[in-house]
Write a structure and sequence with these properties.
Largest interface: A-B, 73 and 74 residues
Oligomer: homodimer
CATH topology of the largest domain in chain A: Aminopeptidase
Radius of gyration of chain A: 24 Å
Shape of chain A: globular
CATH architecture of the largest domain in chain A: 3-Layer(aba) Sandwich
Helix content of chain A: 25-40%
Number of strands of chain A: 19
Number of helices of chain A: 14
Strand order of the largest sheet of chain A: 1-2-6-3-7-18
Mean pLDDT of chain A: 95
Number of domains of chain A: 3
Low-confidence stretches of chain A: none
Distance between the termini of chain A: 19 Å
Chain lengths: 458, 458
C-alpha cells in the first residue's frame, strides 16, 4: 500500500519542473474564460489544445451545438487494448464579481506565501493541469503511459453543461472509457485529501402563490386570502420540525447506504465542535453527532429554502396584505430519486392537500450518483494518497454537494471518482480563489501514480 | 326621523356660501403640512387658528412636548351647562410621493368634474372643514350654537400622534367632552355614507430567526439548521389553514358582538360579487358570505403577514442556505384584546413550542374601541343622513381598519363616532387624493344638523 518504486523518477521529474508547471497554471489562470459572460472562451480552449499537443497528446477542438456552444477540448493517447481513464475537466470559470473584494486582480494569478490566488486556480484549472502535467511527466520519463488516457475539457460547466448531452450523443467513441477522473475533490486544510465516489443530485424549483390582484390595506386580512400565509402553510406540510421531509412518498425509493458505505462514515474528517463554532450554531440539526450526523449529511435528501419573499420587507412596518408570495427551493437528492419523479411527488403532495393553485416553476437539475469502492481508479487514488500527502485519504461514499458527475453517469453509465487540488479555503466561485502550491504539485504526483497503478490492470 | 325644520335656514346659508367653503378647502389643501417631512406644520396650524377665529371661535395654538411637538389648534364655544361635542381632527397629511403619479400637483387643489383633487382633501382637511364650516353657518344664522363645541386639531396623526398623550395629560379641562366627532368615516361611491362607533386596533411586530453566522452553500442543509424553515414552521403553529389564529388563548378574552351589533351587519353596503371581481379572487376566506363574512370582518382579530423574507430572492435560483429570516406582521385586535397582552401571548406561545430563539421586535400599536348605538351623537348622525344624502346610513358597529380613536378612548374614557366626507375612491395616503364637492357640502350640513339635534338634549 505505497507508491510504486517506478514513480520515484516521475516524482523527481515533477519536482525538477515544479516552476514550469506552476508557470503553466499561472498562464491558464491569466486567461479569462467566463462562460456566463462569454469572455475568452475560444482563446482558453486553444490554449489547452496547444498545451496538450506540446505535451505529446494529440488534441483537437470539438465543436458543440448547445447554447452558447463552446468547443470541447478533446485529446487521446491510445495504446490499444488497455484500461482507459478519462480526465474530465472544464475550462470555464465563474464570473469574478464582486471585483472590489479581491485582494489581487482575479486574472493576474499571484503567489502569496504558499498559495496561488486567481479565478479558476481551484475550479478547476489547477485540477485540470494536475491531470495534464502528470501525463506530461510520465511521458517525459517513460515515453508512454501504461494505460489509455482520454482528455475532455468542456467550456460550459459553470452554466449547467448545456452542450454536454449533445457532445456525448455525437461522439460515443470519444466518450467511451472505463472511468472518469472527475474534478470536485477537496482537502481539509492541513488535513486529509477528500476522495469521493458519489454525489447528491440537486433539483431546484420555485413555488408561487397568488392572492388578490394588488396589495391591499391589511384591514382586508379578515376576509381576503393571504398568499403569504398560504405559502407558509403549504410549506409546513412539506417538512416537519424534526427536519423530516413529509412530501408523500419522498423517502420510499431512496437507496440506503451499504454497510461498506457506512464504514467510511466513521473515518470522515469532520471536526464537529470546530464547525459549530465557526458557523456560530449551538448544534447540528436534531442534535446529531458522529456517524448519524454524517449519514444524514451524505445519504438523506434535503429540502432547502433558498429564499422566500412576500409583501413589504423594507424598514419599519407597512400595514399591507401582500398579493403574491414565492419561495425558491432546492432538494438535494440521493440515489433512487430522479428530478422528474421528485417534481411529480411535490405537485401531487400539494394537490392532495388542496394547494393546486400554488404554481411550481421548475429550475435546473443535477443527478445523484453513487459508485463502488471496488472501482480500480478509486482504489488507486486511495492507495497512493498516504505516501504523497503523509496522511491517509478521507473517503466520502457520497458528498453533500452536487456536480455534473451524476448527469454524466446517467448519459454514459460510466462511473467517476472525484479528487482534485482544491481545499476547504479555496473560495471557489468567490473572491480570492486560491490553492496551495504544494497541493497542486502533490495532485500531479497523485495522478501520475494512479495512472501507473491502473497500468497493472493490463 | 328627518332633519329639523330649523335647519332649512342653515342649509340655505350653506348652499349660498358653497363657493366660499370650497375656496376655504382649496386654501387649506394648498398649504403643505407633511408631518413626516416637517413641512409647513406651523403655517398650517396658524391658518386653522385664524380661520376659526374669523368664524367666531376663540382659538389658540397649544404647544406640545412630544417629538416633533407640533402645536395643537384648540378652540372652544362654551355656553355653560350643556352637551359638549368635540370635533377631533388633524391638520397633518401624508407625504405626497410618488409625485409622478399625480395627475394634478398635490398642493395645487384642482376641481375636475364633481371632485376636488389634492393632498389632504380627504384625509382630513375636508372632514375638518365640514365641522368648522357647519359651526360657521350655524353661528351666522342663529348667532349661537345649541351645544358647547370644542375643536381639537392635532398635527401628528399621520406619524402616530406622539404628542397626544402629553397634551391630554396637561389639558384635562380642554379634553373633557361628551363625545368626539371623529374623522375616518367614508362613503360608498353613489352609495351610503358609513358611520361607525367602533374600530379594530392594530399591533405590529416582527419575528426574526437566525441560523449560521453567514449564508452557506445549500449542500449544508442536511445538518445546519435553516432559519427560513424554522420561521415557516413557527408561523404555521400560529394560524391554521382555516384562518383560525392558533396562538394559545388568542380568542379567550375577546368581546363578542352584541345582538344589536349583529343586526347592523345585515344592512352593510358590501357587494360581495363586485368586490371579488375587483380584487380578482374566487372567494373570500373560508367561502364566507353575508353576515358571517361581516362578522369575521368586523369582530374577529386578524394575524397578517405584512412581509416575509429570507435568503436569495433575485432572478433564477441560488443554492444557498440562508442565515437569517424575518417576518413583519400585524394583528388587528378587537375589544377585549390589549397590545401588551397580545405580545405576551405570542411570546409564550412560541416559547411553549421551543421557539424561544425567535426574536419578537415590537412595533406600533393602536387600540380597539367599540361604542354603543345609544350614543346621542351616533343617533343624531344616523337620523340626519337620509334627508341630506337621500339614502340611509350604513352603520358599522366596528370597522376592519384602525384609527387613533381607541387610543383616545383609552386615555380619556370618552367615546367617539366616526363620520366624514371621504369616499372609497378618495385615495387617502395615495396619489390623486380627492373628494366629491357635494359630499363636502353635505358633510357641512350633516354636522350642522347633528349640532342642532344634540341641542335638544339640553
Amino acid at each position: 500500500m505505497s507508491v510504486a518504486p517506478e514513480m520515484q523518477k516521475v516524482f523527481q521529474y515533477i519536482d525538477d519542473h515544479r516552476e514550469e508547471y506552476i508557470e503553466l497554471l499561472k498562464k491558464f489562470s491569466a486567461q479569462p474564460s467566463v462562460s456566463a459572460q462569454n469572455w475568452g472562451m475560444r482563446e482558453m480552449a486553444e490554449l489547452i489544445k496547444d498545451s496538450l499537443r506540446k505535451m505529446g497528446v494529440p488534441a483537437e477542438l470539438v465543436e458543440t451545438h448547445g447554447v452558447p456552444g463552446n468547443p470541447i477540448v478533446y485529446g487521446e493517447l491510445n495504446y490499444g487494448k488497455k484500461y482507459t481513464a478519462t480526465a474530465y475537466n472544464h475550462y470555464d470559470v465563474q464570473p469574478p464579481e464582486p471585483l472590489e473584494q479581491w485582494k489581487t486582480p482575479p486574472f493576474e494569478p499571484t503567489i502569496v506565501g504558499d498559495r496561488i490566488y486567481g479565478r479558476g486556480t481551484s475550479d478547476n484549472k489547477g485540477s485540470m493541469l494536475s491531470r495534464h502535467c502528470a501525463v506530461d511527466a510520465y511521458l517525459k520519463v517513460y515515453g508512454k503511459l501504461p494505460i489509455n488516457m482520454k482528455f475532455m475539457v468542456e467550456g460550459e460547466e459553470e452554466i449547467g453543461s448545456p452542450s454536454l448531452e449533445g457532445f456525448i450523443k455525437d461522439n460515443s467513441e470519444k466518450v467511451k472509457t472505463d472511468c472518469f477522473m472527475w474534478e470536485g475533490g477537496t482537502r481539509t486544510v492541513n488535513g486529509p485529501v477528500h476522495v469521493s465516489f458519489g454525489v447528491k443530485g440537486v433539483t431546484s424549483f420555485e413555488l408561487r402563490c397568488y392572492g388578490a390582484n394588488t396589495d391591499l390595506h391589511s384591514a382586508n386580512a379578515s376576509i381576503v386570502p393571504s398568499p403569504a400565509w398560504r405559502l407558509v402553510q403549504a410549506l409546513a406540510t412539506m417538512k416537519n420540525d424534526r427536519d423530516e421531509i413529509t412530501i408523500d412518498g419522498y423517502y420510499d425509493t431512496i437507496v440506503p447506504p451499504s454497510e461498506e458505505d457506512m464504514e467510511f462514515l466513521k473515518t470522515l474528517p469532520f471536526d464537529e465542535e470546530a464547525t459549530k463554532k465557526r458557523l456560530g450554531i449551538p448544534a447540528f440539526i436534531n442534535n446529531l453527532t458522529g456517524v448519524e450526523l454524517q449519514k444524514k449529511n451524505l445519504f438523506l435528501p434535503t429540502l432547502n429554502i433558498q429564499g422566500i419573499q412576500s409583501g413589504y420587507t423594507g424598514k419599519g412596518g407597512k400595514t399591507v396584505l401582500p398579493s403574491y408570495a414565492f419561495c425558491k427551493m432546492d432538494t438535494r437528492t440521493v440515489m433512487g430519486q430522479r428530478p422528474d419523479k421528485v417534481m411529480k411527488q411535490i405537485r401531487e403532495h400539494l394537490d392532495r392537500r388542496g394547494y393546486s393553485d400554488i404554481e411550481i416553476i421548475p429550475g435546473s437539475n443535477t443527478l445523484p450518483f453513487r459508485g463502488s469502492p471496488d472501482n480500480p481508479l478509486f482504489k488507486a487514488v486511495v492507495k497512493n494518497i498516504p505516501d504523497i500527502y503523509s496522511q491517509p485519504a478521507a473517503v466520502f461514499p457520497s458528498t453533500p454537494g452536487s456536480t455534473g458527475v451524476g448527469f454524466m453517469y446517467e448519459l454514459t453509465g460510466i462511473p467517476a471518482v472525484c479528487f482534485g487540488v482544491m481545499n476547504e479555503e479555496s473560495n471557489a466561485h468567490a473572491p480570492n480563489e486560491n490553492i496551495f502550491l504544494d497541493d497542486y504539485i502533490c495532485g500531479i504526483k497523485l495522478t501520475a501514480a494512479v495512472i501507473h497503478d491502473l497500468g497493472e490492470l493490463g
